[in-house]
Each structure stands twice: as C-alpha cells, then as structure tokens.
Amino acid sequence: MKKKLSTFERHLMLDEILFYSICSDEDRQKILDQQPMTFQDFRRLSLLTDYLELEYLHRFIWDLHGYKFMEEMDQLCDQCKEGSEDLPEMLMETGRWLDNFWKQAPNITVSFLLRQIFSDGLKSRRKNNITLYPVPKKNREDKPS
After folding, report:
1. Which range, of 13-17, 87-91, 114-118, averages the lowest pLDDT?
2. Which residue in 2, 36, 39, 41 has the fewest CB atoms around it within 10 Å?
3. Residue 140 CB contacts under 8 Å (≥ 6 apart), including other chains
4. How many CB atoms lie within 10 A of CB 121?
5. What are the extents of the domains in the chain?
6. Among residues 127, 130, 123, which one has the least CA distance to residue 143?
7. Cβ of 32: how many Cβ atoms within 10 Å?
C-alpha cells in the first residue's frame, strides 16, 4: 500500500503545482536543483514565493538552497543594517523581478492577476515563521516571553 502524504508534503505539492504552472522552466529546474542557482536567483525566488504566499514552497527553497548562501545573506544583512548606498538599487531590482514575473505569465489573465497581487504588497507573516532569516545569537536581545 502506498504511504499517505504528510500535511507538509501535500501542501508543498499544491504550492509546486501552482508555481510551476506559471514560472519559467529554468526557474523550476533551479528550484529542483537541476540547474545551478545563484544568490540572485535564491533572493528572487524567495521574494516571489513570499508574495504569492506559497509558504511550503518557500520553505522547500530555503531548506534545499539556503545553506549555500549563508555568507551572502550575512553580507546582505550587514548592508541593510548599515544603510548601504546600494539599498535603493536593490529595491528597484526586486521591483524588476516582480515585473518580469508577471510579464512572462502563461496568459493575459494570469498576468493581470499576478500584477494585482504584486501591487498589493507583501503581507505580514506570523512571528514563528521558520523561514525568516535567523538573527545571530550574539545580536539578539534576550527578552522574556
């Protein structure tokens, strides 16, 4: 008898069905580790899955690829904390990623709907979301719960 899917596996499959039906074949291959993923790809795919609220696929991407980019994430975090002069360009870059994604949608209806979702902005996440970038212990304030 076939093993029953866990809740996570089921939700991940549903997220994958949705995302893989609207993303490029190249992005799908990068997520599945069939093509190399750059840090820019990792950031872009993380952003897209966040905007589309594909929590399980977002976790999957972080679990499969996050460890590869820990040094780059630390550098990016430092740049943000220091108010780097590159921040405006990085924000523009994220806007281009969103624009490029809705423009490559498989049809005009999906393109319109993606544009509506992206223009609505990111929704706040629960504080216990495990996919958020972990703050190093030395920088955390120990506050009682």
Report:
1. 87-91
2. 2
3. none
4. 8
5. 7-122
6. 127
7. 13
